[in-house]
Design brief:
The complex is a heterodimer of chains A (about 190) and B (about 190). With about 190 residues, chain A is mainly α. Chain A has helices spanning about 1-15, 20-35, 40-55, 60-105, 105-135, 140-155, 160-190. The chains are: A mainly alpha (about 190), B mainly alpha (about 190).
């Protein structure tokens, strides 16, 4: 019960601050669940992000299901998803009634404009941490994938699904080659 | 037009929006504005503006807004449920499969290949938001004319307190909002 309640509070809190799209909540989840609570490893969080991005639907909702399931099984997934969708549900319902006033309020838009810089800083911080892990692993192909994927999505505007499919394929081919190389080495030592 | 129709419309949006939040925009435009006429084009643009200014996925935001408009709170709940149900079913299956089969070589390989790509996707989203904050546009090749000094300063200070003093992300965002509120309205 303690864990589920904590999970609900965390997802609710994170979701309430996810200004600017799904990747913001991924950055917040990483800081909360990996660095602060130690509920999972950084690598797992990246695996979940990849899966959340590949499945249909909102990245934030998908990621919360995966993280919730990892932490507390199906009950965890249910709790995490409720925590994630309640803030936008409440906020939009309220805004629905006050939209005109909300949109034309100068202070509200000034605060939101300031938060945009804060969101960019949060993502930059997480990206610096994650990319330094990838670089430190000294696997040059991973580093190249990272750079090419960035250029493809940001500069060339390639569709995200194409990038996902390409990188997954590269990964499968590499792993397949590594496995067959290992088997070949096994056979070699076996015959000696 | 009924609650069931509302559910169905957003179930389809949830089912076919591959590739993150922005992917939902054309689906809402097609399914809700053009086909069913539940929103006018002006309301729809307003909705994207709200979705950008508030937390939460654009599909969930649209579902809540359209549901409220048609049937009030029950409508909002039904539409939201419809839009997240495909995720719940498919991603739960993924979660179970992942725990069971993560050592199978092609799943392991695919995830190994995807991890660096995911970092790049997060970076790209971050740079887009940074450009919006600093240059007022996310179009990198067309006119990065004016630099918004306040936006740039808030970003630099935000990044500094995050990395140097380990201030929590949400506190950093709120601080930037607070200072933004003061500076942008005074200057």
């Amino acid at each position: 019960m303690g864990k589920l309640w904590k999970l609900f509070l965390s997802t609710f809190y994170l979701s309430a601050f996810t200004f600017g799209g799904g990747y913001v909540i991924i950055s917040l989840m990483k800081t909360k669940f990996v660095d602060e609570m130690h509920w999972m490893e950084e690598e797992e969080m990246l695996n979940y992000t990849a899966m959340a991005q590949s499945a249909p639907g909102a990245v934030a909702v998908n990621a919360s299901i995966l993280v919730g399931y990892r932490i507390a099984g199906f009950a965890g997934a249910v709790v995490a998803i409720i925590g994630t969708i309640l803030p936008p549900l409440i906020i939009i319902s309220v805004i629905f009634f006050f939209y005109e006033a909300f949109r034309s309020n100068l202070i509200v838009s000034a605060v939101l404009k300031g938060m945009q810089s804060g969101v960019a800083a949060v993502i930059a911080d997480v990206v610096l941490n994650l990319s330094s892990t990838i670089v430190k692993n000294k696997d040059s192909i991973s580093v190249i994938i990272m750079i090419l994927a960035f250029v493809a999505t940001f500069v060339l505007g390639v569709n995200v699904m194409v990038i996902i499919a390409a990188c997954a394929t590269i990964g499968i081919v590499r792993e397949g080659l590594a496995v067959s190389r290992k088997e070949a080495a096994h056979e070699l030592t076996g015959t000696l | 037009m009924s609650l069931l129709e509302l559910f169905k419309a957003f179930f389809q949006i949830g089912m076919f929006s591959f590739g993150g939040g922005m992917a939902a925009i054309p689906l809402v435009q097609e399914g809700i504005v053009a086909q069913r006429g539940w929103l006018t084009m002006t309301q729809f643009t307003d909705l994207i503006t709200i979705a950008e200014m508030t937390p939460g996925p654009i599909a969930v935001n649209s579902a809540t807004f359209v549901g409220m408009q048609l049937y009030g709170l029950p409508g909002a709940l039904v539409a939201t449920a419809g839009c997240i149900l495909p995720s719940i079913i498919l991603v739960s299956l993924l979660a179970v499969a992942y725990t069971k089969y993560k050592e199978i070589f092609w799943i392991k390989g695919a995830l190994n290949g995807l991890r660096p790509a995911v970092v790049a996707l997060i970076a790209s989203a971050g740079v887009t938001i940074l450009f919006l904050a600093v240059f007022g546009t996310s179009e990198i090749f067309s006119g990065l004319g004016t630099i918004n000094i306040i936006g740039l300063l808030l970003f630099v200070v935000g990044l500094f307190v995050l990395r140097k003093w380990k201030v929590s992300p949400i506190q950093t965002m709120m601080l930037c909002g607070l200072f933004g509120g003061v500076f942008y309205s005074v200057l």
